[in-house]
Amino acid sequence: MNISKYEQILMIYASEIQRYLIKTGANPADAQDIVQDVLVKLIQADIVLAPDKLRPWLYRVALSRFYDLYRREKRYQALLSERFYLIYGNDDHFPEDEKWLLALALETLTDYQLSLVTLYYENDKSVKEIAQIYQFSESKIKTDLYRTWQKLKQEMEKYHDNN
């Protein structure tokens, strides 16, 4: 089989898989990354699959990557939401005499950190939407939200231990 013909078939399958991933729920950037990872894996495997076996292999690897990404994202969002919700989003979990701890801890945040918390919990903006607002990557926003939560936790513990 001619290599250029094989590459053409490969590119057709790659664009087909990308469209399928987007249709399944992946955002376009993630779909592109997944397809690229699959192609890199094919190159690194240093194998040439027959055309009738190429398509199923590409789909299987792409879907596996997509499910891994989905599970990781879902788990990360659940952890982040649970921790921030307990600290910031639900005053019912705080005893009356400890609500002032949250207020004091919030005062220690920078304007950027406070706006992240406000956008995420009060305005119900997604990490993707916040990333678009600030023109940062989603991973930077996630990291900054996590660090902000850590700072709030430390401040609340510090104020709690002093009393």
From TrEMBL:
<dbReference type="GO" id="GO:0016987">
    <property type="term" value="F:sigma factor activity"/>
</dbReference>
<dbReference type="InterPro" id="IPR014284">
    <property type="entry name" value="RNA_pol_sigma-70_dom"/>
</dbReference>
<dbReference type="InterPro" id="IPR013325">
    <property type="entry name" value="RNA_pol_sigma_r2"/>
</dbReference>
<feature type="domain" description="RNA polymerase sigma factor 70 region 4 type 2">
    <location>
        <begin position="102"/>
        <end position="151"/>
    </location>
</feature>
<dbReference type="InterPro" id="IPR039425">
    <property type="entry name" value="RNA_pol_sigma-70-like"/>
</dbReference>
<dbReference type="InterPro" id="IPR013249">
    <property type="entry name" value="RNA_pol_sigma70_r4_t2"/>
</dbReference>
<dbReference type="GO" id="GO:0006352">
    <property type="term" value="P:DNA-templated transcription initiation"/>
</dbReference>
<dbReference type="InterPro" id="IPR036388">
    <property type="entry name" value="WH-like_DNA-bd_sf"/>
</dbReference>
<protein>
    <submittedName>
        <fullName>DNA-directed RNA polymerase sigma-70 factor</fullName>
    </submittedName>
</protein>
<keyword id="KW-0804">Transcription</keyword>
<dbReference type="InterPro" id="IPR013324">
    <property type="entry name" value="RNA_pol_sigma_r3/r4-like"/>
</dbReference>
<dbReference type="InterPro" id="IPR007627">
    <property type="entry name" value="RNA_pol_sigma70_r2"/>
</dbReference>
<feature type="domain" description="RNA polymerase sigma-70 region 2">
    <location>
        <begin position="13"/>
        <end position="75"/>
    </location>
</feature>
<dbReference type="GO" id="GO:0003677">
    <property type="term" value="F:DNA binding"/>
</dbReference>
<keyword id="KW-0240">DNA-directed RNA polymerase</keyword>
<dbReference type="GO" id="GO:0000428">
    <property type="term" value="C:DNA-directed RNA polymerase complex"/>
</dbReference>
<keyword id="KW-0238">DNA-binding</keyword>
<keyword id="KW-0805">Transcription regulation</keyword>
<keyword id="KW-0731">Sigma factor</keyword>
<comment type="similarity">
    <text>Belongs to the sigma-70 factor family. ECF subfamily.</text>
</comment>
<dbReference type="Pfam" id="PF04542">
    <property type="entry name" value="Sigma70_r2"/>
</dbReference>
<dbReference type="Pfam" id="PF08281">
    <property type="entry name" value="Sigma70_r4_2"/>
</dbReference>
